[in-house]
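To close the chapter, one final illustration. This time we ask the reader to focus less on the individual chains and more on the assembly as a whole: which components sit near each other, and how the overall shape emerges from the parts.
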Amino acid sequence: MPRLLGLDIDSKYIRMSVADRRLKRITYLRSEGIGISADREEGNKALTEVLQLWKKNYAPSGVVVGLSLNLFTCKLLDMPAMGREDMRKALAFELEKHLPLAVDEYLFDFLMIRKGTGMKTLVCAIKKEAVSAVVKLINDVGMEVLSVRCRVVDVLTSMMEISGEKNMKGIFILATDDGYEMAGIEDSLPRSMKRISAGADLAEALDVFRKSYPGKIYCSGPVDQLIAERFAMTKSQITVSNALIFSFVQRTRLNLEFIPQELIRQKKDLYPHIIGGLAVAALCLYLLTGFVAYYKEARALRRIESRIETIKSTASGVIEARKKLEALQDDRKTLLAFQNSSNMAIRVLKELTQVVPDNAWIINLVVDEKGFVELEGFSRKTSDLIMALDKSKLFKNIAFAAPILSRDGEERFSLKFEVREP
Amino acid sequence: MNRRKYILLAAALVMTLLLFQTYVLTPKSETMREEIQVKSATLQKYETYLEGSAITDTEIRTAGEEMKAVEKKLVKESSEFLAAARMQKELSELTQNAGLNIQNIRPLNTVKAKTFFVIPVYFEGSGTIKQIGDFLNNVEKHSVLLKIEKLSINVTNMQNPRELRFKMQISGLGKS
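The assembled structure is written out below.
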C-alpha cells in the first residue's frame, strides 16, 4: 500500500501530512506543522531535517508538494475550442505574450471552460527553477516527488467536496502565513486567482473582487473574525497538506500538475505483458492437458492391470475354470448350431410332401444353407399351392420368382420362400 | 545471455514439448486408451467369474459330458485332408447303398469354425425320388454328424419325370 507525504511549504511553517493510499481510498495517519526560519538557507536546512525525520518514521513512497500562489502566474485566456493536447501546444505560443520570460522556462497547466464556441482557459505557470529547487531538496533527502501542485486550487477542491454545492459561485480565500490567496469562482470552477499580502486590506480587496465574482465567500485558514462576519463567510478549516494528498489521489477536474516532464513516473504499459502472459498460460494449459491426459490414462491402466493381477493371483483357479467353461460352451454352441441346421433340407422336403396339393407337381427344388428355397413346377391352380405353403409353419416370405405361365389348363409356377428359424 | 537467446531457448523448448506431445504422447495415449478398454473388459469378466465361482465346477462337468456325447458324431481324422477323404468315402457308400448314380463327387476346401473345421463335399448325380429319399434318410441317421448345406433336385427330362437329377453339398464337422 503506497504511503504519501503531503508537503505544504509556506513562509513561516512547513505543514506535512502522511496518509496511506489504497486505490482512491485515503487513510490519514498524521499531520503536523513545523515553524521555520525566515532565512532561506536555514529554512531549507530545517525542511531537510524534518523530511529526513518523517522519512525515517513513515517511509513514504512519494511526496506531493503544494506551492504558494505567489510563485505562479495565472491568466484567463480566450482560446478557440480544441482538444486538451492541442490546447497545450497552442498555449505554448499564446503564453509568450503573457509571460515575462521564455515559455520554455516555465511549467504550465490549465483548466478549460467551454464558453460559446470558444474556450475560457485558466492557465497557471510557474518557473522551472522554483520547482527544480524544491524537487532537488526533496530528492536530496532520498524521497521521490510525485506531484507539484498549486495549493489554493487543491484546498478549493476540498472545499467543494465539503460544501457539497453543485454550483459554487463567489470567492474562495485561503489564509496563509503571509497573505491571502483568492480565487474567483463561477460554475464551480476558478476563473481568476490572485494573492494579497497579510498587510493589505482584505475587506477592500474583497469588495473589489466581489464585483467580478458575486456570490458566497468561502474561506479556509485564519481570517479576521470581523471581516468573516461582515462578508458572511462560509468557513472550513482544511489542512492544506491533507488537501494536496486528496487532490492528487482523486484527480478531480481541478487537477493542475506542475511536475517536470522528466520526473513524471512513466506508467508501465501492461497490455503486452498481459497478452504475453495469457499466451504463455494458454500454451502451458495446452501442453499440460496432453501430459495430464497421458498421466491419467497411464494411472488408470496401471490400476486396472494391478487389479487384474490381484484377481489372477488370488483366484487363478476360478479364472482358469471359467475360461475352460467358456471354451466348452463356445464349442457346444458351434456344435448345436451345426446340428440344428443339419437336416434343414430334409425338413423342407418332408413339409413339401405334406403341403403341396395333389394337382401340383414339382420339377425343380433348390434349398441352400441359409434357408432360401426355390420351387418350380406345374399346378392347376397356383394360388392353392401358395395358400398351402403360407399355412405351413416352416415357410415364410413366399413370393413369385417368375410370372405364372398358363398353358392347356396348367399353370407353370416359380416360387421362392424362406425357412423359418426353429 | 541476452534476451534474444532466452526467447530462442524458450521457443525451442516449447517446440520440443509440442513435438513430443504430438508424436510421442498422443499416439501413446491412444494406444493406452484402447488397452484400457480391452483390459477393462477383461477385468469385468474376471470380476463376473469371481461372483459366480460357486457354480463353475458343476457347469464344467455338465458341459463336458454334453460335449463328449456330441463329439462322438464328429469326423475324428487327425488332419483336414484325411477328414475330407473320410467324408468322401462315407458319402460314396451312402449313395451306393441308396442306389444313386453319382456322376461327380469332390471335397471342397475346409472352413475353420473356432475350434472346429467344416469339411464340405459336393456331388451330383441322378436317381429316383425313392433313392434320393433313402439317401437323405441314411444321411440323417448316420453315425457321423452330416449337414446338408445345399440341395437341388430337378426333372431334366419331362418325358421321364421319374428320373431326377440332383446336386448336393454335404458337410461334416471335425475338431482341430
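Strands of chain B lie at 101-107, 111-113, 116-127, 146-155, 164-175. The longest helix of chain B spans residues 3-51. With these observations in hand, you are ready for the problems at the end of the chapter.
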